[in-house]
Structures are given as structure tokens and as C-alpha cells.
Amino acid sequence: MTKKIAVVGVGGRTGTLFAHEMRNSAQILGVARHAQMDNIKDGNILIARQGSKPTRFECDVIEEDAFTKETAPDFILLTTKNPVAPSVRYYYQRVRQETPPDLILSQNGVFAAEEARIELERIFGSNAQRIRIIRVALFNPVSMEKTADNTVISYFVPIRLAFGVAFGPDKIQDLRELFLEAELEAEEIASENVKNMEFSKLFTNLLGVSSSSYGLTIEEGFADKKVFEEEIESLREYARTVKESGGRFLNLHHYPTRLYASLLGSLPLPLLSLFRKRIAKAIAKGRGRKGKGNIDEIDYYNGAVVKIGERFNIDTPVNRKICQTMKARG
Question: Where does the Ketopantoate reductase N-terminal domain start and stop, copy by copy (predicted)?
Fold first, then answer.
């Protein structure tokens, strides 16, 4: 039987990507806000896969207030921005049923699954333990450009991601098969390593945020010795918080984060500085030249480092400074 996935956030970057890329492996129901729904129906949202001409994004779509237990799917794929708690509360209160859908979270950061679990327990009590909370780490940068007539969402292919069960029954064959059928490069992570997957993904997210706080691209920022040193120290602070929390970095397919973290942590700054332009060029190339932009979820990037540091009594002044600078930029 074909699985049904409700993708919450179509019209946005990540939601549109997943709805488009998984349309041949599952029945996709897009859930959008009113303005986004109008754009989709009017054909104003275009998909630009790297190397291909933009095409019209098409999807069965409903407005968020039309989401009820009658439309409830097998999975809710939540692609809205952090924090996740309000969205989890909104949609799961609308599908109060004996067998609620499983939840897939694609947000960056290391706290999304815990926030979702708390909300599900408030709604379903002990029955929340039956709901799988699946974390997805998407490694493809996705950009959105608006013109007078259209919104163009672009990314490179193949789609690369890692996924695993954060909470709930540790069975994931059904989702693995959906990703495989959709021809996504999906690396399955054992449940005991999902938190480490989140730590590893955040490491890649932090690269370039310091540069962005100065209004610079990663290549411009790394060319400045002072900014480069701040980039490295923010990552070293993060590595210390991860270690103290009992976590570790993983070498994921195409993203050997544990190796990168080890090199950045062990090599002296003067030596690293000699290669800073090459490092920046490699990172920018891997991101398809897409910059970090003005990160409006900074509390879930460097802010997460500060939060973990406070929990384990580790000082994180560089990450705190980056947070303050980004928020001041608005």
C-alpha cells in the first residue's frame, strides 16, 4: 500500500524539495499557508534542480486549517522553522486518533526531537511512546530567489541525507524504502547515534556563520585572518560542549565530520591559517556557492552551543558573541 506523507511547509525551501523529490515514492499531501497555497496553485513556484531548467512545482495541497484526522497521513514531515513545538502541537491536536502518524523532523539543531516528544506526551500521554520521531539531516543547501512573478527554489542533486529514529519504535524499513524508491542518497543511522548525527550536522551548519555575522561570504571571511580565527574558535568551543555532554561526531557519507573536527581541534591556528582560503573554497563548492545568509534561527545554531555550554558549565564566549551580532543585525 502506498504511504501517505503530509509535508508541512510546502512553498518553503525544504518542504518544496521533499514534496518534489518524493512524489514518485509516496502519496504527497502538501500543507501550506494561504499565500503559499495561492502561489502553488497559480504555478508561481518553480523547482530548479542543478543542471536542469526550472519547472513548475505541482502538488496536491491544502491549507493548514484544513488538516484534520480525515486527511491524516502515515507520516507528518515537518519542514517549518524552529521551534517545532507550536507546529507539533497544532497538527497533532487535529489528528487525535488511536494510531497517530509518525513524525519526521528536518529542522537544523539538536533540540527538535526533544521538543517534539514533550508536546506529543502532553497530547497523547503514554501513547506518545508509540509515535516514531524520526530525525532527518539534509546536506543539500537549498536557496530561494523571488522575482516579480515567481519564486525559484534551487538545489543540487542527488539529495543527500542521514536519518534515524530519535524516539519511539526503532523500526525504519518503511521510510528507508521510500527514500530508496525516490532515489535519495539516504544514510541510515542507528537510534543510539541519532543525537550524534545531530551534533555532526550542526558542526557543518556552524561553518561560515561567523563570516556571515560580519556580512561576509565564507570565502571573504576566511580570507580575513581575524574572522577565520573566530570561525575556528567557535567550532572548538562547540567540540568541547559536545564532548562534555557525552556526545561525539560521526563520519557520515560524504561528510567526515569527525575527521574535520579532529583536524580543526588539533592543528595549531597558524598552520590552519595557511590553508584558510583553500578550506573556504572547498566549503563554498560543497554548498553550491550558496551563502549562509541572515540566519533567523541563530538560537538553534550558535545559540545551541551556548545553551549546551551553560548546561555543562563550559564557557562559550565566541559563540555568544556571534549570536549577539547576528541578532543585532536583525
Answer: 5-125
Report which residue type is found at 201.
K
User: Which option is the CATH number for 4-188: 2.60.120.1520, 3.40.47.40, 3.30.70.100, 3.40.50.720?
Assistant: 3.40.50.720
129 and 166 Cβ atoms separated by less than 8 Å: no
**Euclidean distance between CA atoms 75 and 22, whole angstroms:** 13
Residue ranges of domains in the chain? 4-188, 200-328
Angle at 266 between CA 262 and CA 268, to 5 degrees: 140
Please report, for the chain, how many H helices and E strands are present, in that order.
14, 14
Q: Is the dihedral of CA 181, 183, 184, 185 positive or negative?
A: positive
In angstroms, rounded to a whole number, what is the distance separating the alpha carbons of residues 9 and 31?
Answer: 6
Let me know: does 21 contact 159? Beta carbons within 8 Å.
yes
Tens of pLDDT, residue by residue, the chain (330 residues): 789 999 999 999 999 999 999 999 999 999 999 888 889 999 999 999 988 899 999 999 999 999 988 887 999 999 999 999 999 999 999 987 678 999 999 999 999 999 999 999 999 999 999 999 999 999 999 999 998 889 999 999 999 999 999 999 998 999 999 999 999 999 999 999 999 999 999 999 999 999 999 999 999 999 999 999 999 999 999 999 999 999 999 999 888 999 999 998 899 999 999 988 888 888 887 776 555 555 678 999 999 999 999 999 999 999 999 999 998 876
